[in-house]
Protein: Acetate--CoA ligase
Organism: Panacibacter ginsenosidivorans
Amino acid sequence: MSYPYQIKSLEQYKEAYKQSVDNPDLFWGNIGGYFQWKRRWEKVLEWNFTEPKIEWYKGAKLNITENCLDRHLKTLANTPAIIWEPNDPEEHHRVITYKDLYTKVCQFANVLKSNGVKKGDRVCIYMGMIPELAIAVLACARIGAIHSVIFGGFSAQSIADRLYDAQAEYIVTCDGAYRGAKDIPLKSVIDDALIGNRTVKRVIVCTRTRTAVSMIKGRDVWWEDEVKKVETLGLVDCPAEEMDAEDPLFILYTSGSTGKPKGVVHACAGYMVYTNYTFVNVFQYQRGDIHFCTADIGWITGHSYIVYGPLSAGGTSLMFEGIPTWPDAGRFWDIIDKFKVNILYTAPTAIRSLMGFGLGPLQGKNLSSLKILGTVGEPINEEAWHWYDEHIGKKKCPIVDTWWQTETGGILISNLAGVTLAKPSWATLPMPGVQPILVDENGKEVTEKEDGLYKGNLCIKAPWPSTIRTTYGDHERCKKNYFSTYENLYFTGDGALKDEEGNYRITGRVDDVLNVSGHRIGTAEVENAINMHAGVVESAVVGYPHDIKGQGIYAYVIFQGSHGDEAMRRKDILQTVTRIIGAIAKPDKIQFVSGLPKTRSGKIMRRILRKIAEGETQNLGDTTTLLDPGVVEEIKNGKI
Ligand code: WT7
């Protein structure tokens, strides 16, 4: 059985696209018809980008978990919903059917309730990649609590900031997490994050590594004990809370070009419809296919294409606890062989890193089950694209290059596997309902070609169902960040090229946001962390091309303390960044300088610093407006 709204040919794509633009209400109204609602909508779409106010399926009532679980029970009760592969290949994998998942989600939803969680409350989830993470997410959605998952690599300080911003009263975590050869002490990080916190009432701790943890009376409880309690009470089902279409489903923090990370808010109905629609169409999902998305649920990719998209489509989602290079660089290929994976969705950085191990790790691995490959998170270079195509897809699997963002909720620009044409390093065509536009700095549409291509800042003209609704607690910030740069447009922060056929190639961020191994990091955020070090006077952070990570982090630092030698100071700075943000934000290079190139008005000229970090010291452009041009010479000579 397939999906009635699955696009099967280029003609159908063109037709769907045209209808979605000409009559979005009709188009998305039809697709909405394939979901389970507690009450139908009064109006499909109402919007303006000035406030902004975006409402999809207005007036409708639903619960996303009824669409992910209950409605599949009749036909898919014994179909695997989640297949879980542990970090250690010697440990047994788990298969969780739709029936099992329904039961576990209801049980944990009852646990949340019995611990006081109510509709609208914020629940912070800080766990490793175990099935209980997906269960916790769905259990929140079941009772209408707003989940905010924090990736396991973030520090206590980052968690504390997010807890405060979301005013979260509940936390779900694990004792620890396994990732490759490492055990990560999650609960202990949470304990640090909670020092001085007066808002959090309850911490529910799931057992995974059974490392020693402190359990504070009155605050901390074990997941397993709580589940037993609700079992004893005979609670099996948990009614799905009736949610308004526009009620927030979750908050997910992401980095911007300024200040602290912002809490991107997605709404129940639009997010459900759009992640399902894109999952089914981009990956051309067929019933029974095993979909392996290698992202962590701590990022939007995991939310949309491990949990909500696949499950709302009745699909089988493979969830992997570990990392691609442990115990060796053949781990992904072992998993594909073991479970006969049909769709692999991963990041260019992983492909490049695995490429580096040569073909040895592929020896003896049967990848013939693969039908479709996908990439996400950063531009994919042609070399990596061809390696993926040749050695993983054996030249018979279409590759989808999916461009999107935390704020977009789902894929906006991508080819549809085997349906529309792939073009190496091009994300290609917009999804139905998505209207991109390239504009110049003044917001004027780019109409002149440069070397045969249109080139500009990528914006979107109208809302798609999973458009960001607000930034939690600060709507003004949402407006300013995304809807004010250019009037009546959503600004993505990316630059792009477009060809004559309407294909898009994303060239990367045009703001001060870095993309390191597919992780989004703001330069200002890293600078703030470096500046926390007692000996640091000032710093400037830029990105530079990195063979595997895509971008590396280069920090220029003015240091004044007398403590330690340079090597020691570097280590201290790295330790500071790890404390303040997390290891993912550690600079790859730190260069100590006596000054930074500034204009007379005191603005750091990052353009120059970027060029030096890229190793291009010749054409630095106009430096005459600098306060002290001499500092550039010094920085150039000291480049590391
Ligand atoms: C930024 C969004 C979307 C899930 C993962 C990242 C970059 C994302 C692509 C792609 C080129 C891409 C953009 C975007 N990006 N996908 N296929 N080709 N660039 O989500 O952390 O919100 O980051 O990732 O620069 O703005 P995110």
Q: What stands out?
A: The mean pLDDT is 96. The first helix runs from residue 10 to 22.
